[in-house]
Amino acid sequence: MAARSCFRQLKLSAQFSGDGGEGGDTPPSQQFAPLASAFRRRLVVGVGAASLVALGANFCGCTSFLLGLAPEAGRNLRLDVLYPIGGYSRCVEPDEGFEFLYPAKWVGDQTLLYRAAGRAEMERSLDPPSLSDPLLRNPRRRNVNEPVVAFGPPGSTGELNVSVIVSPVPLDFTIEAFGGPREVGEAIVRTITGAGKRPGVTGTLVESSLREDASKQVRYYLLEFKVESPTFKRHNVAVCCVRPGKLFTLNAQAPESAWPDVRYDLYNIADSFSLTA
What we know:
Blueprint (H helix, E strand, L loop, with lengths): L1 H15 L11 H4 L1 H24 L5 H7 L2 H6 L11 E6 L4 E6 L3 E2 L1 H15 L24 E4 L8 E8 L12 H13 L8 E12 L4 E11 L4 E11 L2 E10 L3 H14 L1 E2 L2
Antiparallel strand pairs: 1-2, 2-10, 3-4, 4-5, 5-9, 6-7, 7-8, 8-9
C-alpha cells in the first residue's frame, strides 16, 4: 500500500513536469515535495516502532540502562521483574507471598527446576497416587526443607547461591518467642554445627539486627554467620520472618574465599527480601 501511494505521487509529479504541460517550469523541489513529506512521516514512524521494539526486547541493554537512570522509580513499578535495573533482577513468588532482588547474571537453580518439572509430570499422571505419597499432604514440595526458589551463578556448584525455604508453623507461632535477633542467630548456629556434636564443624555469629515493616506488621531478623569445617569455609547472610502459619527463611551463602567479592550482593539480597500483601 505504501509503495502504491509513493508510485502514484511519482506519476502525478511526472505528469505535471512533462514537456508543454502546465507544470513544465515547476522546480524539482516542489515536484517531489509530497513524496518527501510522505517519506519523512514513514521514517519517523519506522524509527519510533523500531525504538519501541528495542526497548521491549532490552536490545543491547538499552532498557536496563534507561531504567538505571532512575532505579527507585523502576523498582517501585516492579519493572525489574522484566528488565535488570542496576545489575539486579527481582524474584516475585506470588503463591508464597515474598520477593527479593538477586544479581541479574544469576540463574535459577537447575536441580530445583528439575524437581519442579518432575512434580508437574506426576500431577499430570492419569494414575491415582499412593495414599502414602507425601505429595498428598503437601503437593508443592516433597520436603518442607526444600527451597521454594534458588538462584546462583551459571555453572556453579551451589556453594554460592541464595534460596528461600517456607515452612509451615502453627498460626500462633512467633519468632520473638525465641528471643531477639542475637538469640535466634546463636540458636541457628548451634543447630547447624550440631551443638558441638559434629566434630570439626564450628560456627560464629558475626552480626544480627532487626528490620521492621510497620505497614505490614512484619519483623525481619537479619543474621550473618560463618560455618567452618576441615573441608569448607562458608559465609552466610540470612533473613527470618513469620506470617501466620508460615516461617520464611532466606539464606544467601558464599565460600569464605569469595566473600570479599560478593558480600555487597549478598547484603543487597537480604536487605531487599520482603513479604508481599
